[in-house]
Amino acid sequence: MECFNCGFPLSELGYCTSCGADVRKYKKIMYTANRLYNDGLDRAGVRDLSGAVRSLRGALRCNKNHIEARNLLGLVYYEMGEAVAAFVEWVISKNIRPEKNLADEYINMVQSDKGRLETIGATLKKYNVALELCNQGDRSYDLAIIQLKKVLSLNPKFVKARKLLALLYLQKGEWDKAKKGLEACRAIDCGDVDTLRYLQEAEIGFYGGDLPEGRKKKITKDNEASVIWNNGNETIIQPLRKKENIGLTVFLQIGLGILVGALVGYFLLVPARETAVRSESNAKQVELGEQIDSKNAEISDLNSRIRELEQNIADQRSELEDYTGANGVLTANDHLQAAAYAYLDKEQSVMTVEQYLGMIPETYLENASPEFQELYTYLKTEIGDSVAESYYESGLAAYRQQDYAVAIADLEKAVLYDPSNDDALYYLGVSYYDSGNVSTAAEKFNQLISVFPESAQADKARQRLEEIGE
Amino acid sequence: MIIFEEELKKFNRSLEIADTEDAVYSEDLTDMMDIFINLANHYDETVIDTTVENNE
Description:
The structure holds two protein chains of two kinds. Chain A is mainly alpha-helical. Chain A has five domains: about 25-110, Serine Threonine Protein Phosphatase 5, Tetratricopeptide repeat, CATH 1.25.40.10; about 120-210, Alpha Horseshoe (Serine Threonine Protein Phosphatase 5, Tetratricopeptide repeat); about 210-245; about 245-325; about 335-470, Serine Threonine Protein Phosphatase 5, Tetratricopeptide repeat (Alpha Horseshoe). Chain A has 19 helices and three strands. Chain A has helices at about 25-45, 50-60, 65-80, 85-95, 100-110, 115-135, 140-155, 160-170, 175-190, 195-205, 245-325, 330-345, 350-360, 360-365, 370-400, 405-415, 420-435, 440-450, 455-470; strands at about 215-220, 225-230, 235-240. A three-stranded antiparallel beta sheet of chain A has the order 1-2-3, with no helix packed on it. The model of chain A is unreliable at about 215-225 (pLDDT under 50). Chain B has one domain. The radius of gyration of chain B is 23 Å and the shape is elongated. Chain B is mainly alpha-helical.
């Protein structure tokens, strides 16, 4: 602390040791300012903002140069939504102490956020408009309420706007809205006397306490609160609280809940379940389809296998029929026995023997018993020369009659039974030649030339080959 | 019981941003120290004048 007269630092004495000025009152004023500042600081700490404003204003009245008190006052104003008042305090504070001043930070904080600054300006203008509307009378209260709601949506901490809105609600008898707004107001500034007064009024109105003039509360014998007032000559009795049938209400609520639950279940859960079942069914259908395809492929394989087996059975049956007669008796043995009998019977020709032997299939011979094969070979050897001669003669006769098909068949057998018969081989070749089968004829002529090169028929064969051109 | 019209009178027009400069300049910064110093100076002058008059 310095002397107000000479600026010399003061001691604990009641006068200045430099200039001798009496500083007792000066010190008292300074101490008072500090005490009020401390009080304001404490009140701001517990959100008694109105009390803090009072204390800090007092501190500044004592000492206008108390920078901390002025900065804190600005901060409290800002918290109450009165940004311009806060700004004024900070500007003055900065002018008093231009450097190392916290107000500088606050000013920069507000000025740097242009959007916030514009919002603050808009809220202040709307608040002033709402206040003017309030002063215009009853008809403008609704418009004022709309304006104040806008203000509070932009700046919810604007205490003055909240208080004014609550006052309008109180005037309109909307106790619950007033109460709600005032409780929010008290949360920001718990020490505002007007707020507490309005809140008390709102609570009285809300809970049916003191009522506007002309109305009074009455408790009936049924302990049911009602309001009685006179309207001209009529006495109006209005129950404050309507008795509710709690049991029925609860029952209806439970029923409604069950109904809503059932509807939710029907419209939400059932379609979901149906979708799940449908997808499961589709998956099963796909699986069954795959199984059906697999089975169809298997059936197709089995059918082809059946057809193959049926073909085998038919082949086997056909082969068996070659071995057996229509009555199931083995015909090969019959033919062999008939051939043997015809050979022994002198009345029958060798050609009959040969016909029976020819009926025995060559495939049967390959798997026949040795005895069968031996008898077959014996008979064929014994009749070979005679048969060959007979076939040669019949073949030659047929050739001469130009029946080349018979000639070729008989001459083939003649050559088969007697390979040394060059005449038979020659006429076989000629029969082929004359029948038009030149290639086979040439083959037979070459065979003749190679087997019987010195024979007369070989020379004829060479001439024939020259005619053919080979 | 509150009277709406009376309560409404307690609400003042809020300072707008355009009013900031005027508000700063119009702020009454007189404090008790100013009054005290003024009184002290006035007291000193009165004492001096009285002393001079008595001496004369």
